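Example record used in the benchmark description.
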Amino acid sequence: MAATATATATATATIHPEPIAPRVTVAILNWNGWGDTLACLESVLRSDYPNYHVVVCDNASSDGSPERIRDWAAGRLDTLRPGQPALVKYLRTPLAKPIDCLELTRAEAEAPTPDLPDTPLTLIHTGANLGYAGGNNIALRHALARGDADYVWLLNNDTIVAPDALARLVERMDADPSAGLCGSTLLDYHDPNRVQALGGARFNPWLGTHRVIGAGQAADARVDRQWVEAKLSYVTGASVLASRRWLEEVGLLCEDYFLYFEEIDWAVRGRRRLHLALAPESRVYHKCGATIARSEQAIAT
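Model output (structure tokens):
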């Protein structure tokens, strides 16, 4: 009798399914930088976060980037090379291939099509060099059109991310619904014991100057998150997690800025509605300058 009662109680107990983690679209912009982009993808696709997919927007590269990305996803191109910095520890073995890759034109990406295949990787051909704001806005419109993104992570292609970098960003944002943008601890790819930025910088609108928070300090130094967040004027565009609420209430990046100042403008427009946050444990290693050098070349030509 006791055994029967126990079995019945077990069978009729309410089952609580595991909560579904918020959905994240990871947006990576590429222009003539397929080597950096593939290394970035190798790290991002090792993330331990359970619910994300990656979108690469190619700004009409002339170096064969789309073909290289396609070959890499199919397993026909090895991106790991001898002599890489110590951060190769995150990339010791190639990811299992092939990786399903959906390719879309700009028009297809921006159309309201929530029934698109849920592939780990989507490659969007933007059709022109639209700069940082224009290229990333296509990824943002794509995420909104699909309707399944709770957050979008804008990530520079010249970065390598720690396996838990995305999880830490989402954790911080989930803890504070009034936060609209969240930054990572950016570390120097070539000197990973040094901080490039804690989330972002302070901006003086009267002088047009900015001061990067935490630049040069030791990577293992204690971080006062609340102090940093109180000082943040904007989140550095190399790694910024934006909430759907921010995108819907504040809008997208201003495309009047081709390369500089777009993240400052974005933050200034939104800070009265939602505040800026930092996830100190989210570690992103930034090569710093690779993307800007190529983009400045594009402006010059």
